[in-house]
Amino acid sequence: MLPPYVMASDWSRNNRTWFAAVQTEKRMMFLILALIVAVAAFNLLSSLVMAVKDKQSDIAILRTLGAGPGEVARIFLVQGALIGVIGTLLGVAGGILIAYNVDVIVPFIERLLGVHFLPREIYFISALPSDPQVGDIVTIGVTSLVLSLLATLYPSWRASRLQPAQVLRHD
User: Ranges for the ABC3 transporter permease C-terminal domain (predicted)?
Assistant: First the structure.
């Protein structure tokens, strides 16, 4: 118990505007990361669509040898899933590595470029704080995996719908 002359207060209640600004900044960073993941998923989608286009004759030959539409779709689903999983694992590992070593990386880049990102005369902080949260890392990783898996659905469906006779006739 505290003596009656001591009053305790919560810093987030005393500094509501600052706390709200930090929360807004965190949401904006999440939005930026989500957009980066969406661009990566779109790149995966477009590369798989191009792979389907390039492999049309191979897909037609597989179909004529007895491969069903599901088997053809599975080939592209597995390809896209592997790319998505490997990319997500490398991205999360790289992000964690950078987040835990930002205090070493930023001064290195500053010396390399000859600039100071946060001059003490202008800003109240002299270093970039980094506090990776497990929940944030998991959210980003799961979002990345889900988007990459969703990006594989259309190309896989398109590959499974190819008609062997039409493709081989035009080759």
Answer: 31-164
